[in-house]
Amino acid sequence: MQSPSRRTFLATGALAAAGLLAACTSSGGKSGGAGGSDAGGRTTKADPDLPLRTKAVAATDALLAQYAPFTGAGGAPGSPVAQLHAEVLTQRAALAAGLPTGTASPSGASSSGAASPSGTASPSGAPSAPGAPAGWAPLAAAEWSTAQARLTDLAAASPELARLLASVSAAGALHAVELGDQAPLAPTAAPSANPSPSATGSPSAGGSPSGAASSNTMSAGAVTALQAALAAEHSAVYAFGVIGARIAPGPKRDDARACYAAHQARRDAWQQLLAGAGATPTPAAPGYELPFAVPDPTAAARLAGEIEIRLTAVYADLVAAGSGSLRLDAATALRTCTLQANHWGAAPGALPGLPAQAAATTGTTGATASPPVSPSASR
């Protein structure tokens, strides 16, 4: 790991900019889906996302039914399961935006207590897996299977819906972990150096890119978003070097080293994909500045959570900009950053990587990833 005395981490640079990359909402006045005529007699175009949104809402309703035994009469409103249930309601509201009247509110489930959709660096109140009651196992399995199934629709979804599906899937994986399922925490797979043109099947459990995106067919927008992800990973690699240096030898330092290696692997994979697309990969900055002082292990853990939270916005943007297996790789990275943020004490929220206003209106987003701000010179 690098010595923190050599460079400082720029909060307003690559990774800080990442916190602003998740786009604002763009409902664009979408209505219920089927084509028809407007008030002036002009033909309106059908919403191509309608079938996928309807499917996603149905899956969420099935998941809410699994929560019913824990949140019905006699359930504790402030219990950990009730908090997760509130997040699922928030997700449903985002997924149902723009659907015909009648699907906008869940059937057989209370809509009160909706959770805040945006991620913060405050501690999460959700339960840790070691203390999860055995009775939560079916609910945990339902969260994980639903999270995985959502990613099968990424390729067919619009950029905005793909971003939302990836975010909801990442949150579902975290819910499964908090309910006691360790499957989403499977070891990270090494990235492949041999890209293939399309993605098939389910994403790997780890957060390293599979390298499956066809770099030669990458769009200009995808290249821009991937450059932003690479710049953010450069920052994360440096920051985790600082974090590891501030934590005493033991399990936490081992965790920091594992994160350091994972960010290095993603950085290297993004560099390979960009080079394959004929683009010059964004180099590491000559200097970085930490967003706050890191004098001890507590501050180091806080910085780790902050980094992972900001990276969720980067990867939500890459999901929207990418296609095929690059989109799938970005969704997997979004999930991994969500799980790591929670591990380090941050709270990703109901919709990791999306701004608060996304759930408050339509759950869709419209801005694209932008290049990172130029870092300052090293001190």
From TrEMBL:
- Residue ranges annotated for the DUF4439 domain, each copy included: 225-355
Segments of this protein annotated with the region Disordered: 26-52, 99-134, 185-216, 355-379
What keywords does the record list, in alphabetical order? Signal
- Presence of the UniProt keyword Signal in the record: yes
Pfam entry (one):
DUF4439
User: SUPFAM superfamilies in the record, alphabetically?
Assistant: Ferritin-like
What name has this protein been given in UniProt?
Answer: DUF4439 domain-containing protein
Q: Tell me the organism.
A: Kitasatospora kifunensis
Which N-terminal stretch is annotated as signal sequence?
Answer: 1-22
The answer, when asked if Signal is one of the entry's keywords, is yes
Residue spans of biased composition, Gly residues class? 29-39
